[in-house]
Design brief:
This is undecaprenyl-diphosphate phosphatase. Pfam families: PAP2. By secondary structure, this protein is mostly helical. It is built from 8 helices and no strands. The chain has one domain (2-172): Vanadium-containing Chloroperoxidase, domain 1. The protein has helices at 2-22, 25-37, 41-51, 56-82, 87-90, 109-124, 129-145, 151-172. It is globular and about 55 Å long.
């Protein structure tokens, strides 16, 4: 229990330090846009485009669907088991830039989904892998800057999304 408390204290210090340094209008606007790209609309559009394609796109669509079928339930179970308060509830006097869609913060669903998509699309289109992972990291970073997640929330999102992607690749291929 003491280890968890120590990790939480370190996480809060990192969060406060980052948010005290980066709350600049331009960065917040940029982070809003990046965060929006992880809201899910692009994933639905990607699935729609892949549905109309043939060949390797069918395999990518299958792995994406399986990946989300594994990742989303795991995400909900973790989020509702840990019940970690978001920064606004955990840090007195802090107000997030945006209103989160749910109550708890651990893990970050935006980050998890972004890493799932980045890993799977990057597997099938390796020339895009670095750009996709850069985008996924920015999604996680944006969630911290916008004040709705602690850094470890996004770190766990990264682990969850990547793990679900590898599971789906191993199952489908």
């Amino acid at each position: 229990m003491k280890l968890i408390y120590s990790i939480h204290q370190f996480d809060v210090q990192m969060f406060v330090g980052l948010n005290n340094r980066v709350m600049h209008g331009g960065l917040v606007k940029f982070c809003r846009v990046i965060s929006f790209t992880g809201d899910g609309l692009l994933y639905v559009a990607l699935a729609g485009c892949l549905y109309w394609q043939h060949g390797a796109a069918d395999l990518l669509l299958q792995t994406l669907l399986l990946g989300f079928a594994v990742e989303r339930p795991a995400y909900f179970i973790l989020k509702n088991s840990f019940k970690r308060n978001r920064p606004q509830q955990a840090i007195s006097g802090f107000h997030s830039v945006i209103k989160p869609s749910d109550q708890f913060s651990f893990p970050s669903g935006h980050t998890s989904a972004a890493f799932l998509v980045a890993t799977l699309v990057g597997y099938f289109l390796p020339s895009l892998l670095i750009c996709l992972y850069f985008w996924a990291v920015l999604v996680g970073f944006s969630r911290v800057v916008l004040g709705v997640h602690f850094p470890t929330d996004t770190l766990m999102g990264m682990v969850l999304g990547t793990s679900a992607a590898f599971f789906s690749l191993n199952y489908i291929l």
